[in-house]
Every structure is written in C-alpha cells, then in structure tokens.
C-alpha cells in the first residue's frame, strides 16, 4: 500500500510540473498607458464602432501558418486616431491606432507594443515619440481576416510634454497652445495620413 501511495503521489507531482501547453499561445501583455513620462502602447482589439462585437471575431493568435502571408502596405490601411479634434487646457489627448485588412484574404501582422509607434509634431518640430521612454515592449502576432478592422483597446494618453530619452524620469517642457499632428505606424506599416488636432 505504501508503494502504491508513493506511485500516486509521484504521478500527481509529474502532472503538476509537466505542463507543455503553458505559455505556448499566450497573448502578449502590455502596460496600461498613463500620463506619466514613461510611454507604453496599447494592445489591439476589434473596435466596437467598426465591427459589432456580436458578429466580428477578435483577431486570432497565430504562432505560424505557412498558408497565410504577412500583411503588407498593399492590403492594410493604418489610421492615426485622437478622441477629440481640440483640447482645452489640462485635457490630455488620447491616441489610438486603427488598421483594416482591405484584401480578400487573411494575413498575419505583429500588433504588439514592440511594433507600435506614435509621434506628435508641430510643423517640422517633433514634440513627442512613444518610443522615447517606453518601459517595456512585446510582440503579438495576430491574424486579420479579410475585411476586418481593429483598433486600440485603451488609448495612449499624451501628457502634453516634449519627450526625450534623457528626461524620462525628470520634468519636461509643456507643449504650447497650437496645432499638432499625430502620425502612427504598426507592424512596420505607416499610416498614409497624419491626424491633426489643436491644443488650446
């Protein structure tokens, strides 16, 4: 009986330790954006305004699929999005990315924080980059079905300061009132147009 009990215990321990499925297709986590100088980028999910949640599936995680090609600039449209066109004093612009598969076939794209870039400029002057003080990044390859549109889960807030890799933990100059432009890229594909907005 002692031998049988030991065999049972050993079997349970082996099952607990050996879990080959753990982490194989786990989605990459991304930090929640804040208004602090450390910039992080949001993950991507279907936009409720673009595709109803009841009918449109979320992008599916895909490790490798030789039959499905990588998304390219010829079949993907990327848009820079802000929650408003004009912001009063103290209001923080919320920045998002929307991308659509305009082709008739599914494709694979890395939408992780490692491939997302937000840049705010005023004329030729670059005021802020999301990558200047990004604390961490991750990869997340997803499959975009034909005609599917997805967008950021949680917008990234710009704290209205000038970014710099040398001032991530310190104070930074505040942006003046005026017009600014947001440009974005994701998965190596840049938005064709910038999004204009005003700080008052």
What does this structure look like?
The protein has 200 residues and is mainly beta. The chain has one helix at residues 2-17, and strands at 44-46, 60-61, 76-82, 86-87, 94-101, 107-110, 117-122, 125-129, 141-144, 149-152, 156-157, 178-186, 189-190, 195-199. Strands 4, 7, 8, 12, 13 and 14 form a six-stranded mixed beta sheet that branches. Strands 1, 3, 5, 10 and 11 form a five-stranded antiparallel beta sheet that branches. Strands 2-9-6 form a three-stranded antiparallel beta sheet, with no helix packed on it. Residues 1-42, 45-58 and 61-65 have low confidence and may be disordered.
Q: Can you say what the CATH homologous superfamily is?
A: Intracellular proteinase inhibitor BsuPI
Distance between the termini: 80 Å
Order of helices and strands: HEEEEEEEEEEEEEE
The overall number of domains is: 1
Share of helical residues: under 10%
The CATH topology, please? Immunoglobulin-like
Ranges where pLDDT stays below 50 over 5 or more residues in a row are: 1-42, 45-58, 61-65
Give the gist of this structure.
The chain has one helix at residues 2-17; strands at residues 44-46, 60-61, 76-82, 86-87, 94-101, 107-110, 117-122, 125-129, 141-144, 149-152, 156-157, 178-186, 189-190, 195-199.
Label this structure with key terms:
six-stranded mixed beta sheet; five-stranded antiparallel beta sheet; 1 helix; 200 residues; single chain; 32% strand; mainly beta; Immunoglobulin-like
